[in-house]
Each structure stands twice: as structure tokens, then as C-alpha cells.
Amino acid sequence: MSELNLPVLDLSRLDDGPEAAARFRDDLRRATHEVGFFYLTGTGVPAELEARLHRAARDFFALPAADKLAIENVRSPHFRGYTRVGGERTQGKVDWREQIDIGPEREAVADPDAPDYARLIGPNLWPDAQPELRTVAAEWHDHLSGVARRLLRAWAIALGAPESYFDEHFGEPSTLIKIVRYPGKEDPTPQQGVGAHKDSGVLTLLWVEPGKGGLQVRRGGEWVDAPPVPGAFVVNIGELLEYATQGYLTATDHRVISPTFPDDRISVPFFFNPALDAQLPIIELPAELASHARGVTQDPANPIHSLYGENALKSRLRAHPDVAGIWHADLVAARTAG
């Protein structure tokens, strides 16, 4: 794997004794300090579950348009359900992909005095024609939540904090599964499958269809390819972890280039973030690490909030202006006026 542009880490080293675990934590810290992205093997996620997820994704996107549009996200004030091709934006530009968004299954918040971000809480939209999608998504969520928690505990120790640091400050995690299909494009120039961006939360675990490239990561001012590796997830950190470490760990720009027609590409990012009402405090790094903290990259037009709910709401309103306009016109007007 020496030709890969990202580091490769093996999570199972945490089970190989104190010395191997310590080396894994050092590698984890180094990878996310220097790059912000890495491949993760040894997760214990069954290959059979990966195959079922892949099949469920293909089956969903093969449904008749009427079945998919019956659960279109414009029907959900919580930004759940199906997004048709061109229905999402990054940096104001249209992304060439279709997807279904699946979050925690909860009742909508009826309290009119609840904070704005509470509007993100609510039920998912599931296709009647494919009941098995809900089952495989729940299994995927449980497996990847376990992987995410192991990583966060390893990070905590690597950063000089108690192992339980993130467990104590996360609350009930806000998770999001996106099952995405990138259709092929015939244009001769690269097209925006999803535009350049940094994730707004803490941690992303990405499963990519075997053999399908397109993901690119910015390293040293250049875009480098991050092709799928068999049995591995592509892992990256988000802006909130950069904020909590005051720039010691790096949230990195990444994008997806559309495949060339007639090819297409399936990917499934899993976002593991704190509770909407959780405020991730700044970690007091050891002096030798703190001296290498670069500070947080702040864009006045896209501020990073320590309260996760504010980050999440900001991202959803920008990415889905049609949903925002239908269900949250008051929030859009307030932010425009501000």
C-alpha cells in the first residue's frame, strides 16, 4: 500500500497489547495532525454486512422514481429522506449525486421555545417498497458507532486527556448515514460530485464501493486521489475536532469527482457527532503538543461553533435551500438579515 496518498492504520492493534496500542495511538495522532485523513483497517465490520449494505443501496437507487420521490426530503422538516440529483449544494454549487439521509429515529420536538437546532430532531423517511433498508441501516449504525467510540477513546489518550473524555462530553451522539450514488457524467472536464468542503462535526467513517475512485483530498495545496482500499474505511475528522484541539488536529478539504458515464459510484459516509446540545470543550493539550497547534481556520462567512447543533443546522440550511425554504423560512430570513 506504499503508493497510497493517505496513511493506513489498523484498529485491531489496540487489542495487541500495551505497546501496539500505544503505537496505534501515536500513529492516529500523527495522521490527524499532519493530514486529517487516513485509511482504517481491522474494524471488525463483517464483510457480509458490507455486501448487504451495498446491495441495499443498489436496490434503493434502482427503485422507480415515484417510490424514491415519495420520501423526498422536501417532505421532511428534519432534512431526512431522499435527495434527487442536483438537490444538494456545496459552497453554493450543485452537487451531482442522489442520496438518502438517515439520522437517529426520534419524535419531532414540539416545544416552541426549543433552540433552533432542535428542528433537526425527528423521524426518518423510509421507502415502503424496500423494508430491508431500515434493517441494514440499523446494523450499520451500531457497528460503526462502536468503531467511532474506540477511535475517540484512542484520540483522547493520544491528546493527553482521560480515555473517557469524549464519552463524557458527547451526550447522546448525533449520527447521520448518507447512502449516496454518483451518476456518471459525459462532460469532458471533471464535474462536481460533491464540492470541496470540510466536514462540520467530529468524525466521519466512509465506505466506498470497491474499485470506484473519485474521492480527492487536499494535501500540500494539491488534490490527491484517495481510492478505496479493500476492507478499509476512509476516515477524516471535522471542524469541531479541529476547534477542540485549537488546530492541533486538522480538518481537511475533500471533494468527489463524478465518474464518467455510463459508470456510477456508491458511497456511504457515516457521521459521528456530539448531541445537538453538546458543547465540546477545548482540550488542554500537553505543552509539547500545544506548541504545534496552528489555531482554528476561521471563515467569517462560515463560522465554527463549539455547540454542535449550531454547526449542524448551519450546514443543513446551506446544503438544502429547498428544504430550508419550505420548512424554515424564518431561520433563513434571520440568518440573511444577520
Automatic annotation (TrEMBL):
GO molecular function, one term: oxidoreductase activity
Keyword Oxidoreductase (UniProt): yes
InterPro entries xref list: DIOX_N (IPR026992), IPNS-like_FE2OG_OXY (IPR044861), IPNS-like_sf (IPR027443), Iron_ascorbate_oxido_reductase (IPR050231), Oxoglu/Fe-dep_dioxygenase_dom (IPR005123)
Known pathway: Antibiotic biosynthesis
Keywords: Antibiotic biosynthesis, Iron, Metal-binding, Oxidoreductase
Pfam family, one: 2OG-FeII_Oxy
Record's protein name: Isopenicillin N synthase
Gene Ontology annotations of biological process type: antibiotic biosynthetic process
Assigned protein family: Belongs to the iron/ascorbate-dependent oxidoreductase family.
Transmembrane annotation, as ranges: none
Highest taxon of the lineage: Bacteria
Keyword Cytoplasm part of the UniProt annotation: no
